[in-house]
Write a structure and sequence with these properties.
Layout: H1 13-20, E1 25-30, H2 37-50, E2 55-59, H3 60-63, H4 75-94, E3 98-102, H5 108-115, E4 123-128, H6 132-138, H7 143-148, E5 170-172, H8 179-192
Parallel strand pairs: 1-3, 1-4, 2-3, 4-5
Helix pairs in contact: 2-8, 4-5
This protein binds adenosine-5'-diphosphate (ADP).
Adenosine-5'-diphosphate binds near residues 38 and 138.
């Protein structure tokens, strides 16, 4: 590391986003498997794209096929997974994009590590606050059933902990709110913070 020198870019971060007429930020969706992270992040991606914003979505499962395919689900690997994803999100935000990420990210310290990569106000923690019972009933990928049968070890919510965010910027209880209501809440927040236009 000591022989590697940081090169300053000629085009600044602010100039890149000004060219796009938008403000970069990261919406970090966190919650149990089945809490709705992918569903809401994808629907939000569509809603923002239709409004003309340049967005990008990083999804846990997809990242594990490529960037993080060498990582498993031990605590150590989960931490490294989130570290890499955080750095990639930062690069996309530096490029001027509105970034969404959908990762269980069960540990508060990992989420804090990503938050600290971003200027104040640009990291938006979105807590998918659905009860375990709801997520387990949905079981969209059949993973809870496998975890209960002992076929998957270290499954968050079953035999691996989830640390709920204490001060998330946005909290969505997807067992009480519809997908449309969740999107409305996030869009409302982005308008209020002047991260997107108020129209
Ligand atoms: P995660 O990405 O957190 O693992 P998914 O988005 O893959 O969760 O799955 C959530 C499941 O719950 C989907 O089948 C989705 O259709 C369903 N669902 C029902 N109501 C909601 C809601 N209000 N928000 C998000 N998902 C919901």
């Amino acid at each position: 590391m000591s022989n590697i020198v940081w090169h300053d870019h000629k085009i600044t971060r602010a100039e890149r986003s000004a060219n796009k007429n938008q403000k970069p930020c990261l919406l970090w969706f966190t919650g149990l498997s089945g809490s709705g992270k992918s569903t809401i992040a994808n629907a939000l991606d569509v809603a923002l794209h239709e409004r003309g914003y340049h967005t990008f979505l990083l999804d846990g499962d997809n990242v594990r096929h490529g960037l993080c395919q060498d990582l498993g689900f031990s605590n150590e690997d989960r931490i490294e997974n989130i570290r890499r994803v955080g750095e990639v999100c930062k690069l996309f935000a530096d490029a001027g994009l509105i970034v969404m990420s959908a990762f269980i990210s069960p540990f508060a310290s990992d989420r804090r590590m990503v938050r600290e990569l971003f200027p104040a106000g640009e990291f938006i923690e979105v807590f998918m606050d659905a009860p375990l019972e709801t997520c387990e009933l949905r079981d969209p990928k059949g993973l809870y059933q496998k975890a209960r049968a002992g076929e998957i070890k270290h499954f968050t919510g079953i035999d691996s902990p989830y640390e709920s965010p204490e001060h998330p910027e946005i909290c969505l209880n997807t067992s009480q709110k519809t997908v449309d209501e969740c999107i409305e809440a996030v869009i409302g927040f982005l308008k209020e913070r002047e991260l997107i236009d108020a129209q």
